[in-house]
Amino acid sequence: MPDQTAPAPTLKVAFGQGFLKDCWWFAALSSDLIAGKLQRYVFLGEPVLLGRDLDGRVYAIRDICPHRAAPLSAGEMVRDGRGGACVVQCPYHGWTFDTSGTCKSVPSLTPDQEMDVEKIRVRNYSVREQQGIVWIYMTADARRPTEPDHEPPHLPGVVGGKPIIVETMDFDSHIDHAVVGLMDPAHGPYVHQQWWWRSAKKQLSKTKAFEPREFGFSMIRHKPSSNSRAYKILGGAPATEITFRLPGIRYEHIEVGPKQVLGLTCLTPLDDKTTRITQIFWSDHGLFRFISPLFRYGAKAFLKQDGDMVNLQNEGLKYDPSLLWIDDADTQAKWYQQLKKEWMASRAEQRPFVNPVKATTLKWTS
What we know:
The chain is 18% helix and 32% strand. The protein is α+β, with helices and mostly antiparallel strands.
């Protein structure tokens, strides 16, 4: 008899297509959300009403009324007269929804028209607010959203109170290309040519040790390269560690004696062609605070230069070419692909995530 056992299907993860689901994405800074204000966002192609209720609690629901599709964010937040709970009132017909997405009233109904309005629901999203950041959990199944099985990252070096620098820019890029550009160690001397950074004429051979971390990997703590002048401004003997974590989080934690600087970069896809880049810096280093205008200028310049390169890269990507990645400079990009594939496989197979990254040392020139 012929073998009736079919081979297990191979999970194909196309680069530049799709988004990771069932994970935490950066949504906003805590300071962006104002109590009672309805604020519209788009995450992973989904319209989201993200805000604070009148009591200051963060919530997120789908920004489409199920009645006639009006954006709920165009309405207002009011108190439910029956119990004083905070509800969002649709601007079109006044339907109200609590912050979990349950319909609480349909004003057009007459007293003799029986209808269980609480069976009407708007999709709601799990959110977490910690360390001055609001994270949103985007699930794979919109009809049956699952509860988070892990928490957002707790970041080292969030010190000194409010962020000193915040810069945001939207790139015309799929999240995959944005991530790979973020972790690319070799483009700096060509794309970012500032006097305080490094130039193509002063490149050095780099040897960096890496190890796996939760849902990602880290370039373990080391002394910055001698041609990275920006670190010298901090004085002392800075030591830095750079970590990447799925789905699109990169942070650099710098220690200068007892003082710290944290540079966090979060990538959040708005849709399949646009990715929002948010750069945030915290520090309790007095000198960093003093020279923060210089760092703010640098962060803005870096984002603009990366954005210009993305636009240039798009001229080639529109022809859907094969991409040639080499060791060791592109190994981090390969790791991202492996991490993404393992994330999707572990979810599909309902098993724990197994980090595919192994401890190693990489070398490149930049």
